[in-house]
Amino acid sequence: MMNFALIRREDYYYVDKTRFIPLIEQADRFFFLIRPRRFGKSLTLNLLQHYYDVRTKDRFDALFGDLYIGKHPTPSRNSYLVLYLNFSGITGELNNYRKGLDEHCQICFDFFCEVYAEYLPEGIKERLDEKDGAVNQFDFLFHECERAGQKMYLFIDEYDHFTNAILSDSESLRRYTDETHGEGYLRAFFNKVKAGTYSSIERCFITGVSPVTMDDLTSGFNIGTNYSLSPLFNEMIGFTEEEVREMLTYYSTTSHFNHSVDELIEIMKPWYDNYCFAQECYGETTMYNSNMVLYFVKNYIQRGEVPRSMIESNIRIDYEKLRMLIRKDKEFAHDASIIQTLVSQGFITGDLKDGFPAVSITNPDNFVSLLYYFGMVTISGTYEGKTKLTIPNQVVREQIYTYLLSTYDEADLNFSSYEKNELASALAYRGDWQAYFGYIADCLKRYASQRDKQKGEFFVHGFTLAMTAQNRFYRPISEQDTQAGYVDIFLRPMLEIYSDMKHSYIVELKYAKYKDSENRVEELRREAIAQANRYADTETVRNAVGTTELHKIVVVYKGMEMQVCEEVLS
Helix, strand or coil for residue 188? Predict the structure, then answer.
């Protein structure tokens, strides 16, 4: 829900984030924050609107009384005329974006004039409507507020809504550049925002999912400070584990729970946790995606069971949109290879940028930053002097693996989903691993491009992982040893959802070069057997297999051909 007043009036469960209000006030007056989709940005904006709006003064206690800020109010509360713009509602592509922006702003400006009529000069709405277009109307509006001695707080939600179109093809990029540079309309609009800050706009809070557009719109002047990587605001959006525990503990007293809070955290953590939004906070607090947590809790309360799908369908759709931005292999070879490296190596490194223009998105460091802002990777410490970034959790991992498979789509790759599901079910319930790994080897050989063959081991491992991640019965966990060429995949059974599953697997994957001898293949096979036995004996595996029978599978590829696929019998 995004309506703070409704949440409070109807007594919905609300995680109190109001302690951040004083910190926002102490920060720069023009505040810019980027977070991934579905983290609660819009509700944060709505909370701030209700806190600062002069019209909510007499409802302050009802809205905030029992919250942190109700007990520690700041002098600025209820002292602004609030103007809220939400660009996500604007329709139209870049070439007819102006019309959409004009229409949206006209509605918002008219509303502003009506609700604040008592604070503004008489007849303001009629005079505003005589002006043509959002840029001229906005200019008129903030000057009239200044004349009336009123101060404005401007909120812009999803300022970069139209970035999606920009990054998807070069023609759009050209049009986008025209819009955001020189005399472009969007550029003119943000120039007015800047001008307004010298007039009645005293504060400004802007959110989005990427820093690309802001960099283009504001080159040449600085509209505000980007707090997206600031440790002060790491916990402002999303839930900490403590907050999730508190929520589960509360609902365990009002609903029937079949699991303890600890058990539920153990199930949720690998799927929803592990976001870190500031390098200085690494190793301290990680954040859960709030939308996913609420999806899980709502489903669990209704049925007392873990939901069959751990991913809400809206999240999938959002990631579909993101995958559009990560352009396909041919044009952007480095995108796919960065993602392949991420999957195979388990991490990538880069310097996180707090802004860069769209035209330089091809720069690998910028692309890494884009993945970070979209929530596809998260801060995981440092490595050789650079920021180390890893896939935060299983929800994202699933999306990235799906993306990786889609990059092999050039040869009309369609892994038949019916066939895949049948094989997955046979693997989980009948122990039929030969057909499953045979199918993966088949696909791999069919779809490996020349460039993939050069990557060899990286490609084989990444492809195998991506394919096993499509299997709804397992959560693949990939462990990489420091020894070169040793990688294993533990297909951890999802017993919390499919309690009647019968089989689990360790897959020890080895790779020999195409030119290597048969002796080398045999040597790798023996190494793999020893490693599979060793891994099967670890606590991670013993705790997770539950009632299933554990199979140790050894797979050796020579080039793109699977030479060995056998079970190690204890």
Answer: helix
